[in-house]
Amino acid sequence: MNDLSFLNDLGAVVAADRAHVWHHLSQHKPYETTNPRVIVEGRGLRVWDATGREFLDAVSGGVWTVNVGYGRESIANAVRDQLVKLNFFAGAMGTVPGAVFAQMLIDKMPGMGRVYYSNSGSEANEKAYKMVRQISHRRHGGKKWKILYRERDYHGTTIATLASGGQPERAAQYGPFPDGFVTVPHCLEYRAQWSDADYGRRAADAIEEVILREGPDTVGAIVLEPITAGGGVIVPPEGYWPRVQEICRKYDILLHIDEVVCGLGRTGTWFGYQHYDIQPDIVTMAKGVASGYAAISCTVTTEAVFDMFKDDASDPLGYFRDISTFGGCTAGPAAAIENMRIIEEEGLLENVRLMGARLGDNLAALKEKHAMVGDVRGKGLFWGVELVQDRASRDPVPEGVARAVVAAALDRGVMIGVTNRSLPGFNNTLCLSPALIATADDIDTITDAIDGALTEVGAQAN
Ligand code: PMP
């Protein structure tokens, strides 16, 4: 029998972590001489590390996930009760929480009809790509097989989702990749690629140009984040989305929206795309679906997409021949049901709109005060602060400067994020995504810490 008494000895726990855990997205060399930070406990927006230090987490678990905050006993209880009753059943049969959550979700997504369960954002997107490929075979003689994706967007870490990632350095050294994923230009107006006044429409027209170049009868789908997250918190300009929808309809291209970050309230509506009066064909989601209380992701489709997989029951290949073993674990939907109930009962969408406006105002004030802030953008409780060397040239600050601001904010007890390291030259956008329960005090604490951090790092730079 293993001796687990060391669980109560946090020093031993940290030593075990340092000796044996391979951390995500980390170069481990520094841990030869320092300890990794191990987070022990969380409540609301606050977490405590193994040394007992408290932090206000302004990034919801590091990766915009813990939407309803830490320490939710009602979610833990719902999961516990469900696991005791039935923890798992996968394959062709359903489970009670799987059915209930699917109904709740579809009620929030007019026009959508079916929910396919898996475990992570990457996996949900892979399922969507497989659907698109199979539809191409079933409806278009295998010709409409290409999937468009946008520069700076991210859709996951598996080989196919990396192939559809707009942050090329993430994919470096992991090739070769599967064919059929084609990039379209990003739509960040602050780093404009065109001079048109109607920038949103122009950026969407660029998608049509790619479709015409590739051949419309070869393009099956386009996958887009409603608001690009790790690529720089990019809110598409006015006019972008209606034009994207128009283009998709014109060329019979499925519109796949990746709501892995924006889903479940992050931007003040249930889903990010719901700000824009568009009707997607496929929507994927993960992180906020159960706020990190259990692993769950969903690939949601319209009934029209679903119908293409059941219209020929005599064809042995005519259905979606895919499974995700742990898509049958009931912890996910049980947590997701309670997570959604909390968002609704506590009026969190309204809170996101109110607190998001406050966060936006506070950040605008920081832009007035600090020359290093080039652009501030976001929606709801989802904001980016792009740092530049000089406002006229808009040259990004070197990567080290943005990281120094993150470290200086951490010294002040606030965890903030920064755009993914895989954007060389553009790893200069601070990212904020506090839990949807943030109060006015929390928001002010976050922006005060950034204010102090910018002052400190700005003084060092001069
Ligand atoms: N899509 C988006 C927009 C994401 O931000 C992420 C994760 N950061 C993913 C997909 C992949 O999700 P996961 O890490 O759960 O596979």
TrEMBL record:
Coiled coil: none
Signal peptide bounds: none
CDD domains associated with the record: OAT_like
Alphabetical list of Pfam families matching this protein: Aminotran_3
Top-rank taxon, per record: Bacteria
Recorded family membership: Belongs to the class-III pyridoxal-phosphate-dependent aminotransferase family.
Designated name of the protein: Aspartate aminotransferase family protein
Organism: Roseinatronobacter bogoriensis subsp. barguzinensis
